[in-house]
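Could you help me review a protein record that somebody else here produced? What it holds is a sequence and that sequence's fold in token form. I need someone to confirm that the token line plausibly describes how this chain folds. Take the sequence as given and treat only the tokens as open to question. This is what I was given:
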Amino acid sequence: MDPVLAAVSAFGVSVVSAVTQVVPIEAYLAGLGLVGGGVGLWLVATLAGVGHAVGKLAWYEVGVAAHRSQRFRDWLERPRVKASYTRWLAAFERRPRLVLVMVLASALTGLPPLAVAPTIAGQLRAGRWATVTCIAVGRTLRFAVLLGAVALVVDLA
């Protein structure tokens, strides 16, 4: 398979996967690694990581926009929710980079799920491009490990 075509397709599928969460990008990349034979690992991992970050930008914007929603503001007025939200907001205000560490950890490990981490980052007003960068770096490394593991299995078989 042509490495450029593989990388471009990985980018596109990764964006769709990040936005819809219906297409599992890890499964796609594993399949690509199995049939790709010599596909540029870092090229594919990087474009898939950047694609995932681009897709997650939509979820970040959902978090930012949530503050304009009356429903969200009403939800925040619940005593338990307000106490928890205030506590987390205060922690992140004392250590603003902590939210980016959480996003990076989420991008690398999936804990907390990357489905919610960008939304939380948006709600807590973390920097947009710093958040996207953390997602891109974390996902690129995660995808490189996945593709490397698949290449190792293929080589051993």
Notes: Helices lie at 3-20, 25-36, 41-66, 70-76, 79-94, 97-109, 117-123, 128-156. Residues 47 and 157 are 27 Å apart (CA to CA). Residues 128-156 form the longest helix (29 residues). The two ends are 19 Å apart (CA to CA).
